[in-house]
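pinned: reference chain
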Amino acid sequence: MIKDDVLRELEENKGQYISGSEMASRLGVSRNAIWKTIKTLEKKGYIIDSVPRLGYALSDKSDILSSFSIEKHTKYPLNIEVYDTIPSTNTELKALAEDGALEGLVLVANEQTLGRGRMGKKFYSPKNTGVYLSILLRPEIPADKALYLTTMAAVATAKAIEDVSSKKAGIKWVNDIYIDDKKVCGILTESNLNIETNTLDYVIVGIGINICPPEGSFPSDIKDIATSVFENSKDAHNLKSKLVGHLLDYFFDFYTDSKTNKYVDEYISRSMLIGRDITVFQNNQSLNAKALAIDKNCRLQVEYEDGKTKWLNCGEVSIRV
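pinned: its structure tokens
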């Protein structure tokens, strides 16, 4: 589509003028078609400067998430699709995976109307204050190794957050990213099991990040436990695409080198649980415990109040205060 081609040209040269005639020649269309496309993009909210004899330039003031704005910040040839609004990136990607979509398809959204978290919880996903993405994988691994994909995503997200901000990101086992003891990101990994081979047909890694506080603050039920990467939207300007691009690069660096699991040491070092009192939620029970250690398999060792210890490879925990 000409709109996509023009937007790619503008994004790749953001802040620099491109001659309309040169763009038309490269894309094999008329100058009038370029002009009409520019007007269409402006109606969608893009800020495009136009100067006679210089051409068109995507303004640095323009900050709309697109596949092209993200591709500038990632080295992997991924198929990235960006939505302004979607019910759930995980739900949509599951449907596409069932229809045979290839590994490396990434859905990114500016808003989710039916965002989902772990254990059937809703995931607060308001417009313009976060970024929500899901990654389709078709790994050749046993089902019991799926935990590694969640932990890879956790480290990748923590590193990407630190790349674009001055914040230090920690990990609450197994899948949450925290800043200053408050949750800034949740990860939901879902998979489809091939019963005959006990391997995974596909895995979807969903990641939701609070970029800046919503207008009027977070809802009352999470305002004391949620935070954001930036204090306001101004500080986040032109950084969402970079954050997503870096996150994808880190994740696929780990994923393509999964046999060595070099990232595991960093996952352990970023843990904010070790030595803390926690509550473990498993099998419709909640039990008080102390977090003792995380091993090379990313399992959490806990000590319950009766003195018994156990290694957990799945489940939900919360910090007791």
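why pinned: The CA atoms of residues 305 and 320 lie 14 Å apart. Helices lie at 2-12, 20-27, 31-43, 67-71, 89-98, 147-164, 240-256, 264-269.
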